[in-house]
Specification:
By secondary structure, this protein is an alpha/beta fold. It has 15 helices and 30 strands. The longest helix is centred in the first third of the chain and has 22 residues.
Length: 740
């Protein structure tokens, strides 16, 4: 296709496995051998999305980028010195993995393309199916195509526990399994029991609740497939992320679709100025109310929202708008389901997971992967490559990283920040090394690709490069910041807000490790909590959000603080910014998915975008402010700036001021005091003009600040800065000024 490039690194898979001598002890545990000869490309007219680096070479041989000993992270944090031996041992473990993969698989590039080898594939000879199930005694592929006859298509097993069968084409060369037909794999377990499972690498699974809540695997081979029109996007260094859940992205009480999101939500994200969208709950999950965090089919986009090609269209459309798309990846655990999940896949307790207690998360009632196993690592790394190569994702948010990295999974454990909590027997080194491999692969093969860690522990070096000995993430989420805002709104009077505490929480992040900050994400909106807007305005959001009603003190306060909280968080809180869909315009209430406890209601499982489109309602003012804030960041790029300096934290006046991105930021959180000629120290001499003011009438402010007024600096030290300006600072108002 014109304007599209295919990766020259793409390899084809072989028709039959070969028996090679194992390169490491992993083979004894069921490691499949490397492919030695390419198979013909799958038939059809599908072209995958363009990769970020089409000239990337195979990762074979020694990589000079990881030739060190993994202790360079100590150079940026001397307090890590007592743990030098730990970092050396961890990095050696990582390099052993890279070496073994190179020797047995031909490199991580080929190793991570398991989705081209396993699962169902159309070949000139027929449909080839391959599955790893070392605990099974017998295996057969069954489905509509063979009337579910277990004897019709038996599978052969190799020495590594990989089963294979080729269903031959018909006499006329027709593909033997019709598009849309149901399929399963059936095993005879070690104890002689026959079980039926969905193929582990299924790419499309569906649910018919009129028959059963259990998902069915579907052979997906439509006659026409979506063809990409746009190049993938290299994410910006100034990330403004719009977190979204496709299913709730409609005002109607139902599950929304990929196509509706493409048509209705992407244009709004573009209008607001966000340069990335982060999609939740894409991997198929049997239980909708799990918010997508109980994954059952890791390679299948959720069929609730449409077909896989609908997701491709969504990403392609976003790329055409210049918007990067991130996937919320759940590799921290898997759903406990047996019939339509990975649990007890081959009849054993330990196929993809640790056996026994170590393989179970007691709070989530889910299974925990065995990250130290060769085939499990192939499955997970290939899962990442699949979403990049087949759909064109530009980044990943890894969920549950804290649970992965520690043997206690963070359960009933409070992290104090002492380094012994991170680098002792508490740490699950196999999981940490898997994360290093995942980050190494993503960044090596796709320069500019973004990975984000959801971690509450504050693990040092989590966001330092792998070659230095770090875990390799680009960003971590500042999960303490939204907790601070909720706690203050719940427990502290406005006149008692502590400017020092706010400034500390917003700037308390590790040196040289970037962070994504936010006021509220999906977590803060879940049932049991409320959105910031609802904490601020509560029941008056039902009665006084119309321009035809009086502007009550409650709504006036709520809208003012909503703007200040978002602006100070975006301005001071991190190197990237995130909002959850709808919260940018003050979405009311909370989020709750249909479940038994609420009568299977969709009432709270929707985003009421109609509120912001109604010109008679006051939600439009918050939308306008969020748009102005994000677009201002696009102009001045403060998220990637390095000139951050907190100038003033005045608790009595409730004034907070700082410099960042060449801008002067001044916040007056006082509920009633306004200040004339308020003196603020600044670094730069010259003229200052207002570029954003929360009190502008366009944002339902009171218009107390004249944007035409020019402020001239005085060359006298103030607040530790060489100059000062004097401004009028109304109550509950923020002003951002640029200097000439």
């Amino acid at each position: 296709m014109a304007g599209k490039k295919k990766s020259s690194t793409k390899t084809k898979t072989q028709d039959k496995p070969v028996s090679l001598p194992p390169a490491s002890d992993d083979a004894a545990n069921g490691t499949a051998p490397a492919s030695s000869s390419p198979a013909p490309a799958p038939q059809g007219n599908f072209e995958g999305p363009p990769t970020k680096n089409p000239t990337s070479s195979y990762l074979t041989g020694s990589d000079p980028e990881i030739s060190g000993d993994g202790t360079d992270v100590i150079k940026s944090d001397g307090y890590l010195e007592p743990h030098r031996e730990y970092f050396g041992q961890r990095f050696a473990h990582f390099k052993r993995w890279v070496r073994d993969i190179e020797l047995s698989e031909g490199g991580i590039e080929k190793f991570s393309r398991g989705y081209e080898d396993f699962g169902l594939h159309i070949t000139p000879a027929g449909v080839r199916y391959r599955e790893w199930a070392p605990g099974a005694r017998e295996a057969s592929l069954v489905g509509d195509f063979n009337n579910w006859d277990v004897a019709a298509n038996p599978m052969a097993r190799n020495d590594y526990g990989v089963w294979e069968v080729v269903v031959p084409n018909g006499a006329d060369g027709q593909v033997p399994i019709p598009h849309g037909s149901h399929i399963k794999v059936t095993f005879v377990t070690s104890n002689g029991q026959r079980v039926y499972r969905l193929p582990a690498w299924s790419r499309y699974v569906t649910q018919d609740l009129s028959k059963s809540p259990i998902y069915e695997a579907v052979f997906y081979n439509p006659p026409q497939r979506y063809k990409f029109k746009h190049q993938c996007v290299v994410p910006s260094d100034d990330l403004c992320i719009y977190e979204a859940h496709v299913g709730i992205s409609s005002p109607e009480g139902r599950v929304a679709t990929f196509k509706e999101f493409t048509q209705n939500v992407l244009p709004m994200i573009k209008d607001l100025g966000y340069n990335a969208v982060q999609l939740m709950a894409v991997m198929e999950h049997a239980y909708y109310a799990s918010f997508g965090y109980q994954v059952t089919s890791f390679f299948a986009p959720s069929s609730r929202y449409g077909e896989p090609d609908d997701l491709r269209e969504l990403l392609d459309t976003a790329h055409g708008m210049g918007i990067a798309v991130f996937l919320d990846v759940v590799h921290s655990h898997a759903c406990n389901n047996v019939d339509d999940g990975l649990n007890q896949f081959d009849g054993t307790d330990h196929c993809y997971f640790h056996e026994g207690e170590r393989g179970r998360h007691e709070l989530w009632n889910s299974r925990l992967f065995n990250y130290g196993h060769h085939e499990v690592t192939r499955f997970l790394l290939s899962n990442l490559r699949y979403w990049i190569e087949e759909f064109g994702f530009d980044g990943f948010r890894f969920d549950g990283v804290t649970s992965m990295m520690y043997k206690h999974h963070g359960i009933a454990y409070g992290f104090s920040g002492h380094y012994d909590e991170y680098f002792t027997g508490n740490t699950d080194e196999e999981a940490v090394v898997y994360l290093m491999l995942a980050n190494y692969m993503c960044h090596k093969l796709y320069p500019g690709f973004v990975t984000i860690a959801e971690d509450v522990s504050g693990m040092p070096a989590l966001c330092r490069p792998v070659h230095e000995g770090g875990v390799g993430f680009d960003y971590r989420l500042t999960m303490s910041v939204p907790d601070m805002w909720i706690k203050m709104l719940k427990e502290t009077r406005d006149e008692d807000w502590d400017m020092t505490h706010i400034a500390h929480q917003l700037t308390n992040r590790r040196y040289q490790e970037r962070a994504i900050t936010y006021c509220e994400s999906h977590d803060q909106a879940l049932v049991g909590d409320k959105t910031l807007a609802f904490w601020l305005m509560d029941k008056q959001m039902y009665t006084h959000m119309s321009d035809l009603t009086p502007l009550t003190p409650v709504v006036d306060r709520g809208i003012a603080l909503h703007k200040l909280i978002r602006l100070v968080t975006c301005g001071l809180g991190g190197e990237g910014y995130l909002t959850f869909e709808g919260n940018e315009f003050g979405h009311p209430e909370w989020l709750d998915f249909p479940r038994e406890g609420n009568g299977s209601s969709f009432h709270y499982a929707r985003r009421q975008f109609n509120l912001v489109h109604d010109e008679m309602l006051r939600y439009k003012y918050l939308y306008r402010f969020d748009r102005a804030m994000v677009r201002l960041e696009r102009r001045f790029h403060w998220l990637s700036a390095h000139d951050q300096w907190v100038t003033l934290k005045h608790n009595d006046d409730k004034v907070l001021a700082f410099e960042r991105g060449g801008l002067a930021w001044i916040f007056n959180f006082h509920p009633c005091n306004s200040y004339a000629d308020y003196r603020i120290g600044v670094a730069w001499a010259g003229k200052y003009t207002v570029v954003l003011c929360s009190d502008d009438p366009e944002f339902l402010g009171h218009g107390r600040v004249d944007p035409a007024v020019e402020h001239f600096s005085t060359p006298m030290e103030w607040n530790g800065r060489p100059n000062y300006i004097q401004v009028y600072l109304p109550a509950r108002t923020a002003i951002v000024l640029q200097h000439d």
